[in-house]
Design goal:
The protein is α/β, with parallel strands linked by helices. 41% of the residues lie in helices and 14% in strands. It contains six helices and six strands. A six-stranded parallel beta sheet has the order 3-2-1-4-5-6, sandwiched between helices. α1 runs parallel beside α2, α3 packs parallel to α4 and α4 packs parallel to α5. The protein is globular.
């Protein structure tokens, strides 16, 4: 099968159902706001129910019509695939099939390799990698059936280049790139497209927490890289 090398048509957001994991703060919250401003229906997924409800109120200020809905679901996307699958089914029953899934759930731990607790490596792989695998796996079949859909993986510049102090974090973000490239090959014939975002250091609550452990001078050195 040969697929032409063409870019997909832009997804029309008015009326679209957009799911954002890690949507209660940071990049996820900002993406949800921007989609809502363009008329999308939003499902926010995160662990903290109180933060979700606060974010819901903030997003609703940007409505462009009285039909828009912001649905909040409190669940850990890295723990139990069946639970993730069930809550996404509920979301689709309320707001229709998922047109775009944005995987923003993530966390970080910094430190020298030998100083990082072993369970931190496991936890970061669960949250940053499986936390994107599970929601994507839950919506991909419907996207292929409808022959339309977008899945976004939020990686990091540390997912393109291994950085000092990020031995627990960088591999989880590299893994998203491998997943995205392999998955795109499978779903492109169905008009489903995968995007990987590689944001740099971003002013978010998560980055503020991460910065508390950046005590080694090498963390703050500038690295010039040609892409």
């Amino acid at each position: 099968m040969v697929s032409p090398l063409i870019s997909p048509k832009s997804l029309k957001l008015p009326g679209a159902h957009v799911v954002v994991t890690g949507g209660s703060s940071g990049i996820g919250k900002c993406i949800a706001i921007e989609c809502y401003k363009q008329g999308a229906f939003i499902t926010l997924i995160a662990r903290d129910e109180n933060k979700l409800l606060q974010t819901k109120k903030e997003i609703e200020k940007y409505s462009v019509n009285d039909k828009q809905v912001v649905l909040c679901i409190s669940v850990d996307v890295s723990k139990d695939y069946e639970q993730v699958e069930n809550v996404l089914k509920q979301a689709q029953e309320k707001l229709g099939p998922v047109d775009m899934l944005v995987n923003c759930a993530g966390t970080s731990v910094t430190g020298k390799f030998e100083d990082i607790e072993v369970n931190s490596f496991e936890r970061l792989m669960a949250v940053n990698y499986l936390g994107s695998v599970y929601p994507s796996r839950a919506v991909i079949a419907t996207m292929k059936e409808r022959r339309m859909g977008r899945i976004v993986f939020v990686s990091s510049q540390a997912g393109q280049l291994g950085l000092f102090g990020y031995t627990a974090y960088s591999p989880t973000k590299f893994a998203l790139r491998g997943l995205a490239e392999a998955l795109q090959m499978e779903v492109k014939p169905y008009n489903v497209y995968i995007t990987v975002a590689y944001p740099p250091d971003t002013d978010t609550p998560g980055f503020a927490e991460e910065s508390k452990t950046k005590s080694i001078p090498a963390y703050n050195q500038n690295i010039d890289v040609e892409w």
